[in-house]
Description:
14 helices, single chain, 4-stranded antiparallel sheet, alpha+beta
Amino acid sequence: MTEPKYPTEDITQGVFSFNSMGFLVDDFRRETAKSLRRVLFPEFTVRERALNSACVEAARTISKDWIVAQLQHYAIEVNPEIDGYKAKALLVTSVAHGLCDTVPPQVSRINATLQERYEAQMNDYHVKMEAHQIQGLPQRISKFEACNTPAAEATCDASLFLRKYFLDEHGQPDKARTPHPMMLHGYREKGMALSGRIDRVPALHLADAGPGGTSNITIIGWDRERIDTEAQEIDFDHNVIRASSSWNTQMRRHEEHKAKFQKSRESSDSFDPYHTCGIYAISCGAVEAVWPVLAKGLRLRMLSEGHLAVFDLGIIRGLMVFAESQAKVSKLVANGHSISLTDPSSYQAHYDDDDIDSDSDDVDDNSHPRRLYLQWRGYDTKTGELQHDPYNHNTGYIDFEDALSMSFSGTLYLRRELGSETQFKGFRIPGMTGPLTMNWDALSHLESDRAKVPKHIW
């Protein structure tokens, strides 16, 4: 039985299509009436900060293709070859006359039909893939059992390796199986086969040590501080200095990246969260004072147009949701039942909700002009315990120093770990590496006892 191919073709009907990003016209999602008014009529925005944001968004968003797509989303007849100025005039008139206040029934029916066909296609793929995996499992097990060292087992089949040493029969984290750090001598990873899966297991950590190659040592275990300490001791014995552990190296990379970025971007006084996406090296004095071993290589990876981030603050790893006000963050969290990094559109679906998309009531007064508010969820890297936050106290904010978004100063509330506000700084560096997936619900208090490892990663 050959491995089924992942469906890559969109489900289409006329100008409409449906894929993992949702219901589209020419790869554009439907904008709500409130979003359209914000983009088309930014001059009517009351607050100065919201006005600047609306103007920036309008300049970035509006194009002829986008305009035609919005008209088609609302079943407004338009010739795709129409002149761009006439197309914009037609959309402006349509919005002004309320023709975009509701989705036409015929478009809603097409949406429902395409979504049903797309879900059926994906369900069929998952059924076939599961059957293929079951059929191939005996052969995988046979090859795995022929390996005579843990390093060989990890190289042969990372999934079976984790199930043997770190997960129970249900695929749940099981610290009792291998309570102490395991060293894989000479293990060389291919395509994040092992580290990508370890990223999905709460409180399980991996660190590389040694000079590399056949002399490389990969350490896996449950206590991150102990893992990192042993890795640093091995590096010290072999005179290995890693770039991620040197703050001077990180700052040099930041300055070089900043210089290149400034040449490629026109100067602007307008701050746009869209341009915050990237990797930021993090400096946090409070973490360094209490857990110096864990304070090296801290990261924040901003994505989804500056509204989602994966963060690693040494003692805490997790996910952040950002918005221009704390009230908007709270609404997003309340409505965001499936905010996921594997599907950034899940955030956008909540962010575009009419009840959330408000710039009149949800903008905090007297705030920094380039401030983003946040709420986080995560787990303790030493114990694996997910942080209870029933009263939404895990909040904070970051203030970008300029419109280029190359650095920021932030405040995070880590009450359980440090008992107070925690100050930290971020400096953008090259690259987009980071954890492959994380789900907001998987970090909720409902999953606090034992976070389930997603089945699909095996």
